[in-house]
Amino acid sequence: MGASIILPHGGYKNLLTYQKSDIIFRGTSVFVRRFLRRGDRTIDQMVQAARSGKQNIVEGSEAAATSKETELKLTNVAKASLEELLEDYLDYLKTHNLQEWPKNSRKGLAARRLGREGAWEGFRPHMEEKSDEVAANLMISLVRQCTFLLTRQIQHLEADFKLHGGIRERMYDARRASRGEQWDKAAYSRLAAAKSPEALDACLREMCASLRRMATSLKRRNRWQ
């Protein structure tokens, strides 16, 4: 049996990038509801960017069944969407005269630890009860963690695609393997039909001669002689 054409896929819920992007989407939904005025166009932009980050990870994981290329593209779209969201949070801090926490400060380190825990329940009280500076900085820290992981995920997908190719290559290999199996079966049937050792030898000589003619034809086609 040859390698499967349809590769293992899905399982996105086990990806750290998906788990973090889900928290980002939930946290952003709370943030815009609490801190942005109704009618502000930034609300839709931030929510859609957060949703795009999460959904493209999901779609890319499912698309991996038949297209590693599509998985790679969608994963990159997810990263780009979250980078856009990151800029929105940074702009919010700037326009409201709030502080962006340095990553190695006490607050910054606490935000990073919370992000590594990767649970919405840990973020919820901060997003629903704390100030906009706290909420924005927590999302900024988590988005940066997620985009860092997405960069590594994209690098892994690129390496895998270079090594194994896409579905076209797998289909070609499968067809070639199938034809080889068919030829083996046909050859065995011809040999098995022989009624005596002499007939078996004669059949084998005929098959070898046929193979030599095929090899000569291929050499001429490829101009190897």
Overview of this structure, please?
- The protein is built from eight helices and no strands.
- It has 225 residues and is mostly helical.
- It has two domains: 12-164; 171-221.
- The longest helix has 33 residues, at 132-164.
- The mean pLDDT is 86.
Task: Estimate the strand proportion.
Answer: under 5%
Which structural class matches the secondary elements?
A: mainly alpha
Largest β sheet strand count, sense and barrel closure:
none
Radius of gyration: 29 Å
The dominant shape is rod-shaped
Provide the domain count: 2
**What's the count of strands?**
0
Provide the residue-averaged pLDDT.
86
Q: First CA to last CA: what distance? A: 35 Å
Helix tally equals 8
The residue fraction in helices comes out at over 70%
Poorly predicted segments: none
Reading the helices and strands in chain order gives HHHHHHHH
Feature tags:
mainly alpha; 225 residues; rod-shaped; 8 helices; single chain
How are the SSEs ordered, and which strands pair?
Elements (H helix, E strand, L loop, with lengths): L15 H20 L5 H23 L4 H28 L10 H12 L2 H10 L2 H33 L2 H26 L4 H25 L4
Helix pairs in contact: 1-2, 1-5, 1-6, 2-3, 3-6, 4-6, 5-6, 7-8
Quick structural gist:
By secondary structure, the protein is mainly α. Helix content is 79%, strand content 0%. It has helices at 16-35, 41-63, 68-95, 106-117, 120-129, 132-164, 167-192, 197-221.
